[in-house]
């Protein structure tokens, strides 16, 4: 037996407790909304994907295999990311390669973000062009390789790497500008 609250919520839902569905939703909606908004710039798109994701989560919960604390959130995150990518593929936004005016040598390493407030950094990421933002998030937050990203998005590995490099350069440029104006 476990003391993990998520485990008990899942068991309650499986036993037909409808209030446990609301508990699950309220417990995880903020985190999953943040995951969605890393990929989608429109709040309406985020709401649509979250609704679809939760419907899929609830209808698939009988197939969820509890593997310890955090396993439910990881499983729900995977479903939400997949639904987000499906939404992006449906609109074909990830295939539009946008060429921003950035120097290719603008970033040699990882941009230092320690002094950047999280909400500001999140906004900078959210404002990246669709293709850049999608590849950046998959690489950085979901820890996917360029090969995996290419397969997921139907693009080449080189395109994935290029999109990531350009996203990083654009972020570095925006971080420099923010520092000049705010520090």
Automatic annotation (TrEMBL):
<dbReference type="Pfam" id="PF04542">
    <property type="entry name" value="Sigma70_r2"/>
</dbReference>
<dbReference type="InterPro" id="IPR013324">
    <property type="entry name" value="RNA_pol_sigma_r3/r4-like"/>
</dbReference>
<keyword id="KW-0731">Sigma factor</keyword>
<feature type="domain" description="RNA polymerase sigma factor 70 region 4 type 2">
    <location>
        <begin position="120"/>
        <end position="171"/>
    </location>
</feature>
<dbReference type="GO" id="GO:0003677">
    <property type="term" value="F:DNA binding"/>
</dbReference>
<keyword id="KW-0805">Transcription regulation</keyword>
<dbReference type="Pfam" id="PF08281">
    <property type="entry name" value="Sigma70_r4_2"/>
</dbReference>
<comment type="similarity">
    <text>Belongs to the sigma-70 factor family. ECF subfamily.</text>
</comment>
<dbReference type="InterPro" id="IPR014284">
    <property type="entry name" value="RNA_pol_sigma-70_dom"/>
</dbReference>
<protein>
    <submittedName>
        <fullName>RNA polymerase sigma factor</fullName>
    </submittedName>
</protein>
<feature type="domain" description="RNA polymerase sigma-70 region 2">
    <location>
        <begin position="24"/>
        <end position="93"/>
    </location>
</feature>
<dbReference type="GO" id="GO:0006352">
    <property type="term" value="P:DNA-templated transcription initiation"/>
</dbReference>
<dbReference type="InterPro" id="IPR036388">
    <property type="entry name" value="WH-like_DNA-bd_sf"/>
</dbReference>
<dbReference type="InterPro" id="IPR007627">
    <property type="entry name" value="RNA_pol_sigma70_r2"/>
</dbReference>
<dbReference type="InterPro" id="IPR013249">
    <property type="entry name" value="RNA_pol_sigma70_r4_t2"/>
</dbReference>
<dbReference type="InterPro" id="IPR013325">
    <property type="entry name" value="RNA_pol_sigma_r2"/>
</dbReference>
<dbReference type="InterPro" id="IPR039425">
    <property type="entry name" value="RNA_pol_sigma-70-like"/>
</dbReference>
<dbReference type="GO" id="GO:0016987">
    <property type="term" value="F:sigma factor activity"/>
</dbReference>
<keyword id="KW-0804">Transcription</keyword>
């Amino acid at each position: 037996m476990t003391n993990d609250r998520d485990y008990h919520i899942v068991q309650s839902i499986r036993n037909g407790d409808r209030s446990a569905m609301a508990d699950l939703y309220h417990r995880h909606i903020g985190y999953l909304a943040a995951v969605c908004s890393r990929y989608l710039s429109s709040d309406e798109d985020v709401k649509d994907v979250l609704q679809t994701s939760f419907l899929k989560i609830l209808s698939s919960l009988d197939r969820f295999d509890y593997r310890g604390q955090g396993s439910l959130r990881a499983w729900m995150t995977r479903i939400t990311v997949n639904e987000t990518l499906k939404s992006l593929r449906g609109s074909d936004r990830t295939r539009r390669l946008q060429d921003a005016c950035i120097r290719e040598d603008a970033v040699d390493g990882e941009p230092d973000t320690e002094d950047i407030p999280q909400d500001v950094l999140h906004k900078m990421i959210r404002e990246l062009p669709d293709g850049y933002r999608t590849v950046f998030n998959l690489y950085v937050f979901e820890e996917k390789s360029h090969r995996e990203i290419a397969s997921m998005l139907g693009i080449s590995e080189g395109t994935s790497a290029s999109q990531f490099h350009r996203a990083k350069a654009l972020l570095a440029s925006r971080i420099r500008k923010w520092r000049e104006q705010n520090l």
